[in-house]
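User: Round two. Same drill as before: sequence, then structure, for each protein.

Assistant: Same drill it is. First protein:
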Amino acid sequence: MSAVYSDLMSQFDIRLTDSTGDELWFPVNPTEISIRRDRSLETFQIMNLGEVDFPYGEKIKEISFSTFFPAVSDPSFCRYPDIPNPQLTMNKLNTWMSDRQPLRLMITPSEVNVLVIISSHNSTFKANEPGDVYFDISFRTWREYRVRTLDEMNGGSLAEARPDLKPVPKTYTVQSGDSLWAIAKLNLGAGSRWSEIYELNAGQIGPNPDLIRPGQELVMPS
């Protein structure tokens, strides 16, 4: 592979780290990195699971590049001297791709610092460069998603688990010396609204709105 790189790419470091902290620092920078972005809403049907919804927003990014793992370190193009074994490193990438667990991809000093999965990985061996492994690799940024089962789509547990979006009524605990007029003035901005508080709490207060007791929890108008 040619040792001629642009000044910009020669300054980059590309690192891939799994959840255990095992890190791969790519020894040779690619000549270019491709990043794809789109915006859309996608719904996928997954057999035996149901629908997977991706909300509106920036579509999953695709990040890809091509480079190689050299068998022998060469300071003219290697980022560091103690480079990993090419075949063992390829095996690690294959394992990570099979696991489909999120990995942390960092390209410094750029702003790329994202969770990804390896979506494709192809390697090439050249007869005149024994031990070197050339490869193309693509990543898709990881996004947590919600899976709806067929039962849930038919009104099962999904409906039961759906959070109650109705507002929770505001309450006020009566203190010693309080009156409905004073409570309305303090909490609603107008003492004249005391009757609204009474209407909501008449069953608890009783027939006389002037007789409220400390410790009573009154429901307040919205």
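Second protein:
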Amino acid sequence: MAGIGERLGLGPHERLLIVNCDDVGSSHAANLACLEAMRTGVATSGTLMVPCPWAREAVDLFEGLDLGVHLTLTAEYPGYRWRSLTGAASLHDAEGFLPSNVAAVSANASPDDVRTECRAQIEQALAWGVDVTHLDSHMGTNQIDPRFFAIYVELAVEYDLPLRMVGPRLDGLLGFPGRDQAAAAGLVFPDEFVSHWGRPTDALFRQALPAVGPGVTEVNVHPVLDGPELRGYDLTEAQIRVDDHAVTMDPAMADFLDDQGFRRISFRPLRDLQRAAA
């Protein structure tokens, strides 16, 4: 079977790269950094955290840019929290917010409540006028629990959207054949996903990307402008976000990606391909 690149009308040896800014809408500083990364840096795509306080601002700022929905079931910062759109009890912790970690979601969240909440987040983005290009998952919550993964696929089919998927190596470690399930449902998704939270992104890109083969690879970044806002809510990992912004804006990184022969795209061509096949 032809690969995604060939199905997009490109040669069999073409390497396509999606650079996705996660956490759009999580803060004003994240919005500004992701916007800059997409407009003048190496980023090609972003994903919106619909329940977050700065999501509505992002809709206006990112008008005309490619945004997906970053399905959000967690609120990880100790002093900066948000709630679900639907208010379901199983989705909230004792303080009334989305839980701080994936394990708490898996332990307590009802799949029916997860389905309703994720659908509400997609519907809200559409109602705001976002031309949603794809779905992915904040902190991977929808991707690593087979119950929630089934909902992830179900919603992608319902809205005819491509998905972020873990790469083939990690897929084999999850305990269920997620990539096979998504493909059987007729969904389009990248061939590879390069991500390693906490590892310097510049070094990760330079070591991992030369080794990826033809087809579509997604990498994700979490750019945020440095300053009191970021340092006030992210007390432990703010520098990762600052450094990600720097990487996306570094001309040397743009040159590196060009020298590697990557053609940078967003998820939109994958969405168009999926919908044309349907």
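The domain at 4-277 is CATH 3.20.20.370 (TIM Barrel).

User: Perfect.
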